[in-house]
Write a structure and sequence with these properties.
five-stranded mixed sheet, 2 domains, alpha+beta, Glutaredoxin, 5 strands
Length: 263
């Protein structure tokens, strides 16, 4: 821990004591320690174990406070989105996982190489099992720069989708379920999976270079940016955002609220 951090933490801890007793103010403490840092060092040497306990407790309190504020901000943002839903575009011809006219639409922004997206994939499967025909998933692409295989995977998915949406969905599932294979086989694994799902490989090779596929992926990325989705995975559930690989209960909270309104 840097000296400045130690000073700040110590001042914060000591300042709290001034609220309950007659003692120097936080400002006076800060000025005294800045003038003579040896005060801190002497305190540490006198009882280093206790000092570390105080520092750790202060750090934990700060983290808990930040987490609580973040949750509060997220709750307020979510309440606002229920009132004014986000409006992602659902283009004709896109692959839809689930029933096309389901009352709940989950738009997912994902990266085939992202380990958190693999978690998100598993959670979406739980959502589908829980809600059945009540949900549909629109899979969109947000390949991150530091995942070099994410863009090729997105192109393979869309190239296969031009042939058969069901085969594209199988490709999607196989890649996420065997994400570790990317480290061993790289881009060659996408060709292997494409063959396994029964895609016409000659057509895939041609469609991988199709400008419309590149434009679709670019449009997905631009839309994600518009909604401040900087990381993956990100979800928009009937207009309400969920940013990150949240577990099933987080999805249920939003979905159940939507469904209760529709009744």
């Amino acid at each position: 821990m840097k000296t400045t951090s130690i000073l700040s933490t110590l001042v914060s801890a000591m300042a709290a004591l001034t609220l309950a007793s007659c003692a120097p103010s936080a400002k006076q403490l800060k000025e005294a320690i800045e003038k003579d840092p040896s005060i801190v060092f002497a305190a540490i040497q006198k009882d280093p174990v206790k000092f570390i306990e105080v520092v750790n407790k202060a750090a934990q309190d700060a983290q808990q406070g930040q987490a609580a504020r973040a949750q509060d901000d997220e709750k307020k943002s979510r309440e606002e989105e229920f009132k004014n839903p986000l409006q992602p575009e659902v283009q004709a011809g896109r692959v839809i996982f689930g029933k096309a006219d389901a009352p709940i639409t989950i738009v997912e922004y994902s990266d085939f190489q992202c380990p958190y997206c693999s978690r998100g994939y598993q959670t979406v499967k739980e959502v589908e099992k829980e809600y059945g025909d009540k949900v549909r998933i629109i899979f969109k692409h947000l390949p991150l720069d530091f995942h070099p295989l994410a863009m090729p995977a997105a192109k393979y998915f869309e190239a296969i989708a031009k042939q058969d949406h069901a085969k594209a969905e199988k490709f999607h599932d196989m890649v996420f379920e065997n994400q570790g294979m990317l480290k061993d086989k790289g881009e060659a694994y996408f060709k292997e999976v494409a063959k396994k799902v029964g895609a016409d490989m000659k057509k895939v090779e041609v469609d991988l270079k199709d400008e419309s596929i590149a434009k679709r992926i670019e449009a997905d990325m631009a839309e994600a940016k518009k909604f401040n989705m900087s990381g993956t995975p990100g979800f928009i559930i009937n207009g309400v955002s969920l940013r990150g690989a949240y577990p099933l209960p987080a999805f249920k909270d939003i979905i159940d609220q939507h469904l209760s309104v529709k009744k």
